[in-house]
Amino acid sequence: MFRKYSLCLSLLLSGCAPLAVGGVGSLGMSAVEDRGLSGVTSDQILRMKLNVELSNELSDFTGITLTVYKGRVLLTGVAGSEQVKADAVRIVKNDPDVVEVIDGMNVQGEDGFSEYTRDGWITTKLKTALYADEDVIAPNYLVTTFDKVIYIFGTAETPSEMKKVIETAYDITGVKRVVNLIEVKKESPK
Known about the structure:
By secondary structure, this protein is of the alpha/beta class. The chain folds into 2 domains: 2-107; 113-184. Helices cover 48% and strands 23% of the residues. The chain is built from 7 helices and 6 strands. It has helices at residues 2-13, 17-21, 24-32, 36-57, 82-93, 113-132, 159-170; strands at 64-69, 72-79, 100-107, 141-146, 149-156, 177-184. Strands 1-2-3 form a 3-stranded mixed β-sheet. Strands 4-5-6 form a 3-stranded mixed β-sheet. The N and C termini lie far apart (48 Å).
């Protein structure tokens, strides 16, 4: 099992972490994020490990996407069958590094290309609005949209910032539901 993760480890140790983790641009954004570069790296390593576990245990999980934030795993996309969907959730839940599993998957035949395009547009529109808002620390939010449902991970500085992010998401045309996975930063004692 160690050999499967040795590539990830060697990339991180060789200085190629930015490319392995998502490109040079994401390195700078990771440093600004509340979870920091080490938190982003830990989540990316967990995502890669889970992808290996899923590919070893499932006959086909190509339609399933994993989003990891502070050990919380969101499964979205289209599973080939109800059994594949259930098995994917079970496999991810059984990993000791997983804190929580959020199942946002559909079963094959329920979505088409136009739905994926629409979901990408919704995500882009929300990210743009968050970066344009001076009262929101946009790099602290990870947004994924699937089947007109927006999933928002992140850390808000205040409850009012969290409320603003959620309200902005609901203001986007075509959004069916917003799943709030945002934590509020704890106030420091005075």
